[in-house]
Amino acid sequence: MYEKYLTLEFLKKEYGENKRGCLDIAKEIGCHRSLVLRYLKKFNIPRRSRLEAISKKREEKKKLTEEEKVKRREKLLAKASIK
């Protein structure tokens, strides 16, 4: 049933290139995380270490924080220009 989604190309792109997690991919497809892990193993796609996964989450959080800072600066500048 999920074979049409869990292809080598899809997993290489989403898990490998886009650095999405197994749980995130599983939620999108509507399957269990273990099925995604099984297909990673089937296609010999190396799993990321916990450190790599944590690093990615930290980068995303830091990036989001930087985006928020830019938005806040823009709002302050807009308010200052109104006065």
Describe this structure in words.
By secondary structure, the chain is an all-alpha fold. It folds into two domains: 1-47; 49-83. It contains four helices and no strands. It has helices at 8-17, 22-29, 33-42, 50-82.
Q: Roughly how many Å is the radius of gyration?
A: 19 Å
Secondary structure tally: strands? 0
Major sheet attributes = none
Q: Mean pLDDT score, rounded?
A: 84
SSE succession: HHHH
Our measurement of the CA-to-CA distance between the termini, rounded to an integer number of angstroms, reads 61 Å
Helix content range of the residues, please?
over 70%
The SS-based structural class is mainly alpha
Globular, elongated, flat, extended or rod-shaped: what is the shape? elongated
H/I helix tally: 4
Domain unit count: 2
Percent in strands: under 5%
List unreliable stretches of 5+ residues: none
Write the layout of secondary structure elements.
Layout: H1 8-17, H2 22-29, H3 33-42, H4 50-82
Short structural summary:
The chain is 73% helix and 0% strand.
Based on the model shown, name its key terms.
single chain; 83 residues; 2 domains; mainly alpha
